[in-house]
Design goal:
Number of domains: 3
Mean pLDDT: 95
CATH topology of the largest domain: Rossmann fold
Largest sheet: 6 strands, antiparallel
Number of strands: 18
Distance between the termini: 35 Å
CATH superfamily of the largest domain: Succinyl-CoA synthetase domains
Low-confidence stretches: none
Bound molecules: guanosine-5'-diphosphate, manganese (II) ion
CATH architecture of the largest domain: 3-Layer(aba) Sandwich
Strand content: 25-35%
Structural class: alpha+beta
Length: 376
């Protein structure tokens, strides 16, 4: 679950990290009032669950109240990577001398958190990692000891943080690590962390992503959960008990069992296509479940063909076939369906599907090739 910048900044502020003063606005008039109250200049920033707002035109500096109004006018309603901006955050502009990067995430190889600090802040850290990996200082705190003072200062030395700010940045790194642990975060990031002209250090941006599996013990944060329209499909699938992940491709996928669905994604990729989703109907799916799954996949406008890959164990081929027939009858899909059905009651299933408007293939690879071809 992602928090908005203004929400994440509140969490940081409670932990003692300095943030610029700011207010949320939902209309240009509110933005103007906020700018006047805060004092100019201000920055007007889109609040959406996605990064790269600056490059997309979602962060604007305003020197006058009128500029704040027009900035809010331009940003509100803007589409940033599929997210519509409903709120802006108006913030006292920082007097920037230098931009740093500070972030903590989980290093799955080391099975520890990794703290990253760089004096190349402000830009995409992925680009820095790819082109100048030596510019990122990294530390892996012991889970029980936490980020010790000497380790935080060491990161500052390695990263080349100016001497005058070393203690302040080290303190922020330790506070940020505390927040990371306390919020069950998967990722927490301050990019940029501003060193201001007067030498003070403030968080210019804040990103906080909390592990969904920990929300039961994060009731305060759980209240901040928002579903964006482009996440609705995922929420619907989740409510029905499916594991569903929306992807970018054109071939809709349904399978039974996470491992089978994963290899189905690979098969589609090998055949030159791209999966539109991951959907596992689970074991023993009945007709109604298969029908609901297929309807969810078909509701995605990007889907140009659907590949149903069933290896029946406790899932029965005849139940799968009945689910598909119900969809063919009720919704009359506009895109072709390809099925590979094997295992329990596969023959009964195939008999039921005889003459139906779909393509049947004997193996996963053949079916993947057909689904990719039909999607073109
Ligand atoms: P992101 O693009 O979504 O990561 O949004 P950020 O909050 O990181 O803002 C992008 C860029 O806008 C920063 O790297 C800064 O260069 C600039 N910016 C953000 N806040 C301020 C500010 O208070 N003053 C000034 N002058 N620039 C800012
Ligand atoms: Mn940023």
């Amino acid at each position: 679950m992602k928090l908005h910048e203004f929400q994440a900044k509140q969490v940081l502020a409670r932990a003692g990290i300095s943030i610029p003063e700011g207010r949320v606005a939902t209309t240009p008039a509110e933005a103007e009032a906020a700018a006047t109250a805060l004092g100019l200049p201000v920055v007007v920033k889109a609040q959406v669950h996605v990064g790269g707002r600056g490059k997309a035109g979602g962060v604007k500096l305003a020197k006058t109240a009128a500029e704040a109004t027009s900035a809010a006018q331009a940003i509100l309603g803007m589409d940033i990577k599929g997210f519509t901006v409903r709120r802006v955050y108006v913030e006292r502009a920082a007097k920037i001398a230098k931009e740093l990067y500070l972030g903590i995430t989980i290093d799955r190889d080391r099975r520890r958190a990794v703290v990253m600090l760089s004096t190349v802040g402000g830009m995409d850290i992925e680009d820095v990692a790819a082109t100048q990996p030596e510019k990122i200082a990294r530390g892996w705190p012991d889970a029980l000891l936490g980020l010790q003072g000497y380790a935080a200062r060491g990161l500052c030395f390695t990263a080349g943080v100016p001497e005058a700010q070393r203690d302040a940045v080290a303190a922020i790194a330790r506070q940020l690590y505390g927040v990371f642990r306390a919020t069950d975060a998967m990722t927490i990031e301050i990019n940029p962390l501003f060193i201001q002209e007067d030498g003070s250090v403030v968080a210019g941006d804040a990103k906080l992503e909390v592990d969904d599996n920990a929300l039961y013990r994060q009731p305060e944060l759980a209240k901040l959960k928002e579903t964006q329209p482009n996440e609705e499909q995922e929420e619907r699938a989740k409510a029905l008990g499916f594991s569903y992940v929306q992807l970018d491709g054109e071939v809709g996928i349904i399978g039974n069992g996470a491992g089978l669905v994963m290899s189905t994604l690979d098969a589609v990729k090998n055949a030159g296509g791209h999966a539109a989703n991951f959907l596992d109907v689970g074991g023993g799916a009945k007709e109604s479940v298969v029908k609901a799954a297929l309807e969810i996949v078909l509701a995605n406008p990007k889907v140009k063909s659907v590949f149903i890959n069933i290896f029946g164990g406790i899932t029965r081929g005849d139940e799968v076939a009945k689910g598909i027939l119900a969809v063919l009858h009720d919704t009359k899909p506009k895109v072709p369906l390809v099925i590979r059905l094997s295992g329990t009651e596969a023959e009964a299933g195939r008999a039921l599907l005889e003459g139906a408007r779909l393509v049947s293939r004997a193996t996963m690879d053949e079916a993947a090739t057909e689904a990719v071809r039909l999607a073109r």
